[in-house]
């Protein structure tokens, strides 16, 4: 459970201000810092496989860079992998496929579990100290601020009252419009202060010169009587006093930066953001954006053939990506199940009763893995092309109807047939991901069955179910054939009568 929660947090860490990343960087433990950095790099590597049109050169270059930076024996940011794992990655480095760094990713997860546990313990301790802050919120002055907050937002259209500064930060065009709005009212210093503090907060601690430069800039421009400690400060007198005292003790620490940011942000959202959201220009831009989206949807409806291939492949890729991001451990376990001959045979029998082509999906996935192994063994071109032709003739253009024998969109299969010589070693990339997505949906059911049955009883049980399933399908097919024959006989009788 702890691992799953940590993985979920890692997946959204960039959207949460890199909170866990900064914790590892400030810990002084180089191994933790390297591990969290490598984890982030691995996510970027994986995203290369989900872009429009895979760039094989970029994939290969990124894989080699990751290996030389984090894994090789002289790596400057080593994460301490064992020699066996290092050799395994090296042997499969060319061509580089998506699962190349699976074992390394698991190693990073193991390393990061310790700092994650420490961070949770620290945050729990901090959370228990918020009683004083809650007391302040109940004071008369705070109640007055809440009333002012409510009044300032009363002029904002109801559909935009859920907007906050973070909403604008996710849309670069709107944040530029907001900055222009503030500049016209001589209030842009509030937003630039928050943005400069955020830039400083995200600057790596190892880049000491840059942090010092940005710290000096912030102190000179904002943390003086020119702004934060001046007459037009967004902070109250008490807040200014508290921050000044903390700056003497902690300088510009992460906690101090976040406190100043919170004060500035509250001022922006209480005073300036409602005015911006209430402008006719903002409303007009949102209507124009909605109109563009509507036109795009209509265009797709009028020309579905132009987007069918892209949509079918990308939907399946996004589904796999989402599952991978939230269940990294399960994905690795599932891949091992498929690569283990014993458990793969069990799973193959299990899925044979769940769908028409699911058993073929397993076989197709395995054959593509063997094709990848062939690429890594640097076999001659004739052998590789023969393997490609075999996979195509068995699963994508079968002589036994139907021609397509696996669960992938027809457009995806056609794309492979038409571009087999241009796609290089990644010819089956999207198709393999599509069948993996289908099979992964059945993984929890298979796990539940395995846990409820003795290992030696599992395969006989699955075979027995398979026999019953095939017998049921045979009876159904015979009934359909008999009904069809009866209908034809009826038609012939009617024709003879007339």
UniProtKB/TrEMBL annotation:
Please provide, in alphabetical order, the Gene Ontology terms of the cellular component aspect for this entry.
cytoplasm; nucleus
PANTHER family reported in the protein's UniProt record = REGULATOR OF G-PROTEIN SIGNALING 22
Q: Where is the RGS domain?
A: 6-112, 164-284, 333-439
| GO molecular function, a single term | G-protein alpha-subunit binding
* Origin organism lineage: Eukaryota, Metazoa, Chordata, Craniata, Vertebrata
Q: What is this protein called?
A: Regulator of G protein signaling 22
Where does the sequence pass through the membrane?
none
Gene3D superfamilies under this entry? Regulator of G-protein Signalling 4, domain 2
Source organism per UniProt = Myripristis murdjan (pinecone soldierfish)
- InterPro entries (alphabetical): RGS, Rgs22, RGS22_RGS_fourth, RGS_sf, RGS_subdomain_2
What are the GO BP annotations of this UniProt entry?
Answer: regulation of signal transduction
């Amino acid at each position: 459970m702890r691992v799953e929660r940590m993985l979920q947090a890692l997946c959204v860490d960039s959207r949460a201000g890199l909170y866990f990343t900064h914790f590892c960087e400030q810990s002084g433990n180089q191994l933790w810092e390297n591990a969290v950095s490598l984890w982030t790099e691995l996510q970027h590597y994986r995203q290369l496989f989900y872009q429009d049109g895979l760039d094989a050169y970029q994939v290969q270059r990124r894989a080699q860079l990751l290996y030389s930076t984090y894994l090789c024996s002289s790596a400057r940011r080593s994460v301490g992998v064992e020699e066996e794992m290092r050799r395994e990655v090296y042997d499969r480095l060319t061509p580089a496929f998506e699962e190349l760094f699976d074992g390394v990713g698991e190693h990073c997860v193991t390393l990061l579990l310790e700092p994650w546990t420490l961070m949770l313990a620290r945050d729990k301790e901090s959370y228990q100290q918020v009683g004083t802050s809650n007391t302040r919120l109940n004071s008369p002055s705070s109640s007055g601020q809440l009333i002012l907050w409510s009044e300032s937002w009363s002029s904002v259209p109801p559909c935009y009252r859920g907007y906050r500064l973070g909403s604008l930060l996710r849309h670069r065009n709107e944040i530029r419009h907001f900055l222009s709005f503030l500049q016209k009212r001589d209030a842009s210093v509030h937003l630039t202060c928050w943005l400069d503090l955020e830039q400083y907060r995200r600057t790596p601690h190892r880049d000491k010169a840059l942090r010092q430069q940005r710290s000096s800039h912030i102190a000179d421009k904002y943390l003086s009587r020119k702004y934060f400690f001046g007459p037009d400060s967004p902070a109250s007198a008490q807040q200014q006093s508290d921050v000044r005292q903390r700056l003497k003790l902690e300088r510009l620490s992460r906690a101090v930066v976040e406190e100043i940011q919170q004060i500035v942000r509250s001022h922006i959202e209480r005073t300036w953001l409602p005015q911006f959201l209430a402008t006719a220009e903002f409303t007009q831009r949102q209507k124009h954006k909605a109109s563009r989206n509507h036109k795009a949807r209509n265009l797709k409806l009028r020309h579905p053939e132009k987007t069918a291939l892209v949509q079918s492949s990308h939907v399946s890729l996004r589904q796999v990506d989402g599952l991978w991001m939230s269940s990294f451990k399960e994905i690795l376990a599932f891949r091992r199940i498929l690569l283990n001959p014993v458990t793969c045979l069990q799973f193959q029998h299990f899925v044979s009763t769940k769908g028409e082509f699911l058993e073929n999906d397993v076989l197709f996935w395995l054959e593509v893995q063997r094709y990848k192994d062939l690429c890594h063994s640097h076999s001659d071109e004739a052998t590789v092309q023969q393997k490609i032709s075999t996979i195509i003739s068995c699963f994508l253009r079968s002589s036994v109807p139907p021609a397509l024998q696996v669960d992938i969109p027809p457009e995806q299969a056609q794309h492979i047939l038409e571009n087999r010589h241009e796609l290089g070693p990644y010819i089956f990339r999207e198709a393999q991901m599509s069948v993996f997505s289908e099979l992964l949906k059945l993984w929890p059911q298979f796990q539940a069955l395995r846990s409820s049955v003795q290992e030696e009883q599992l395969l006989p049980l699955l075979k027995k179910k398979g026999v019953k399933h095939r017998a049921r399908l045979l009876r159904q097919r015979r009934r359909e054939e008999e009904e069809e024959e009866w209908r034809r006989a009826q038609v012939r009788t009617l024709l003879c009568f007339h």
